[in-house]
Amino acid sequence: KLNASPAYLRPGFAFGGYCLPKDTRALNVCAGDLGLDLPLLASILPSNDFHLRRAIDAVSDLGLKRIGVYGISFKGGTDDFRQSPALTLVNELDHRGMEVRLFDPTIIAVQQNSPSDAVAENVLNRLSPSLDVWLSTIDAIALTQTAPPETMSRIRASGLPILDLAGSS
What we know:
Layout: H1 19-33, H2 39-60, E1 66-70, H3 85-95, E2 99-103, H4 105-110, H5 118-126, H6 131-136, E3 140-143, H7 149-157, E4 162-164
Parallel strand pairs: 1-2, 1-3, 3-4
Helix pairs in contact: 1-2, 2-3
């Protein structure tokens, strides 16, 4: 019998951000410089990329035009969306001809402090000002982060198809 939490069997969305991918690459380079073969470490980034590509295909396979992405930052509870896998998801869905609308309550709360580069402008221009507005403009929902229980109940009550990429339900 394994003493493993059920959470281990429900991985979340792909990881991103500034530090973890950079640190993983650095560890791989250091291992190579030392002549070490570390297959588990070497497989982390390709596995994460595969996980992200599979999520992109799953959203695309819904066959719907207007997709709502909940959670654009690289992890819940932060307003930092640098190197967020959700941005890759949004860009790929754009290339596939879908209209993508965003909702992230943490970014809404601090958007006046957001950076003013092209990526930030693109995110802020797509960001719905409220959950109700967001829900009224989409055909399906892709959750990249776990939503708070009250928000999740409102999302479920919308009747829209939900693709839980965060593994939260």
